[in-house]
Amino acid sequence: MIEIVETGPFNTVQDLGRQGYRDIGVSASGAMDPLAVRIGNLLVGNDEGAAAIEVQTFPFGLRFDRRTIFAVTGADGAPALDGVELLSWCAYTAEAGQVLELRHPPSLARAYVSVGGGLDVPAVMGSRSTSLRGGFGGNAGRPLVKGDRIALGDSADIVAVPASGLAVVEPVVALRDVFPDFVDGTLPVRALPGGEHALFPDDGDAFWSQTWKISSRSDRTGYRLSGEPIKPTTSIEMRSHGVVPGVIQVPPGGEPIVQMSDANTAGGYPKIAGVIECDLWRLGQARIGSRIRFVRSTHAEARAVEQAVARYVEDVRNTSAMVKRALRAMA
Amino acid sequence: MIAILNSHGPLREIVPATRSLARVSSIGARAFLLEAPGEFDLAAQRRIWALSQTVRGWTDISEIVPGMTNLLAIFRETPEDPESVVARLLEAWDDARSIDLVGKTIEVPVHYGGEHAIDLPALCDLAGLGDREVVRIHHEATYRVFALGSAPGFGYLHGLDPRIYMPRKTVPSLKMAKGCVTIGGMQTGVAMLTGPNGWNSIGFAELQMFDPMSSTPAMMAPGDTVRFVPAWIEL
Predict the structure, then answer these.
(1) CB–CB of A25 and B4 under 8 A?
(2) Residues on chain B touching A194 (C-beta within 8 angstroms)
């Protein structure tokens, strides 16, 4: 069991999302930075899709009521256990009664707390993710509040973390060859032209060339971007169709919206582009007020990045299993 | 080390939408949207249902989302050859023969008029019809569920009489109640969640049509027939 001792609004239980129910109108939800959840879970010995806590408002604190292996991944900044600073992207063992605290990260948006055994909330339609709009999944379909107590699943891995922790090289470092760095403080986000791209003048130049700011009216459902409005040369009436996170729609006002994890399942605004899936975690870590620029990509590039990410995750999986086997043998 | 490929490479040709050709575009790298040409009608939707059955069986598909005369196909990974995926979808569309899904019939008791029918007066003005006439036209029609989407369990219903067509609002109602019976363009449906809604409300239905804990969470399925039964008319 863990108990939430401090939290801001909109911190929720999330896993890798509720796949397979979009055709009955159910959004996938899931972590805004799914890569952080996968790595956090592998570090603590879980399946990569176990439920974790997504923290997007700080400070946040929880108390362990039994010996528990845990890891904090995602955002930058150092978590603290009973006031002692720890590393992110590193598995540790907490003793019963100890309190984990997460403070406001220096530059990124979302931290994830993974625990050995995962959060044992009921799976709804195959997922433990919270659907805030639908009011189901996660912790009773709502954000966490102070005093919430959440059961943990069984963990066989408890003896296998060294006292100094078990760390991985975080994705932004390990994968720097495939994820371009910020340029003058602006995050490059790769995207492919969407279905209505051709309706925008000059090959969509106004969209691709300007720097967009993530407006304050942004959340897990979508990021509204502010900048110089872009308008299609003709307005068209679209029929409702399925959409996925990453779709960049242009509503009549001309300021694009990027749908994120809680994306509606259907849409009808013109689509100028779609963010490649493997860049969504970086966008999920971009804060309100930060700047992004879209970079035209290709399916070939998206595939290359996807494969590099898969190799990295596989490497973490193998290495952490190997280290834990060795530690168990020594114990 | 993975080389960053030329990000200004030639754009994949987008298959043009003409009267006779379907059109395929992409959303991100893994999702492809096929849009049927022609009218928004039952004939086109029947072919989308057939296409859905075909594409659902492909081993490299993660999930499909049938829409209104269109289909979004989400692949497990980014395809190596996107051109061949486009060709495969277009071929499946060409081969898709109209099927009629054998659905159930759902009767939805409706309280027409009253406090939730906030847009009924505007619809009467637009249609040039009295409120009784609008209500009668709405409940006498038989509707088909074309697709589900937008909210958990929400069915887009086709079969609205053109006399009571009403465009979606440009400024949505901020807090329309779950259960409102609404008209959006040539479609009708029952709001599944309380919240912002651009459709026009003419009544209210108590019937629960979504249960997340059920093995079949949504009551409606594509192909189902829906009838609205006036439980109470308050005008």
Answers:
(1) no
(2) 25-27
